[in-house]
Fold:
Amino acid sequence: MVSSQRRDLSNIRKGRWIAAVTFGILACFLAGATSAEDCPGHPNALGTSRTLVVDPREHPRIGTMQYLETLPLADHEVVLTFDDGPLPRKSNQVLDILASQCVKATFFLIGQMARSSPEGVRKLRDAHHTIGTHSQDHPLSMDHMSLERAKQEIDDGIASVRAALGDDADAALAPFFRIPGLLRGDNVEEYLAAKGIQIWSADFLADDWRHISPARVYDLAIKRLEARGKGILLLHDIHTRTAVALPRILETLKARGYHIVHVVPATAERPATPTEPSEWLMHPPADAIAHWPQVPEFVFEDLGSLPAPARADFDEAVDAPILHERLPSRLSWPQPELGPGDPSVTLAAPAPSLFEIQGSLDLAFSGAALSHRAQRVASAAQHADAKRASQHERRHLASGYRPRLAHASGQAHRDRQKATKARMTERRPVKRLVQVRRRHA
Ligand SMILES: [Zn+2]
Structure:
């Protein structure tokens, strides 16, 4: 009897001990998950350090590549932006990578892409990324198109993304817009400002639309960030090279003490983050006054001489059919990637040095091949004296490329494509020379 009681007591104690140990392990696990806070299951994630709420009406244009102001970021703060999606598979890869690091970004969507992949738009919403727009058809002519056409591009792009978001459109679509190719125009800027839409240029690029390796995308992203210490990075979620480079970019940001900032628009319930006007200037006010209004110089290649993306950039059957089937041959793509010895390469290849950072000079070149004229322009800029280099600091060599546009089915779409083709054909003659144009901001 006594022996039996002792055994029961022993069992009870043993049970309590097991319960205590189990509870302890559970508590430790929960505590661990809690300490990872923003990124459960990814304790070493980069994470998103803070949310910045901005009022587009107070700051209608941002990004020092073209404008006086940029986001009020502290040193070592970075805002990631992705253009031209959503494109199934590629965008999903990017989303998975961002999710694995608990990083929030801003996506500038093309209306046609949203119409073809509305579920891709909703995935962005569900992952709580910020959604802005990037026109309906991604025309590389907003710097000189009529206001009516520009309005149509802007409004249709917004309508397409709103249609994909459905009832959530008001809450999920930010009044943020990025001009295709960053080809700004006064009338476009005025129209967007009147609508309370903030124009996002960028602070630096990684040239991920060009025929460069993922390693090169990584190098450019990190070098250009290190040169500035903070800023808005422009990437694309429709390219394999970007998806391949992205994990290493995020790991390096984490290792070097950078922080990701998530930007959202102010609303009635969510007031803008308090900031000082000077925080919106990348450069000290004295510098800004000396060099602003800036005269951005755009060097672009006409549509006829655009580089084509590599075939490897495209997914096979999974992706929707693409626009090249509908375009005239001179615009058709994807085209096979041209090897260095290919006799059909008629344009001079740029020297590797052209793509290195030269002090504060940031030149982003479009295309896998530049004309001699472009190289002369770049070379002159690189060897200019300090004053001239300063003037060139905001120079942007806008990209002359068109993203792949997935198309919807049906006669309506075919009619739209026909209209687009007609517009593109009449818009610009095919030229090989890179044009250098100056315009006042
Ligand atoms: Zn774009």
Residues 1-5, 9-36, 288-402, 425-441 have pLDDT under 50 and may be disordered. The two ends are 97 Å apart (CA to CA).
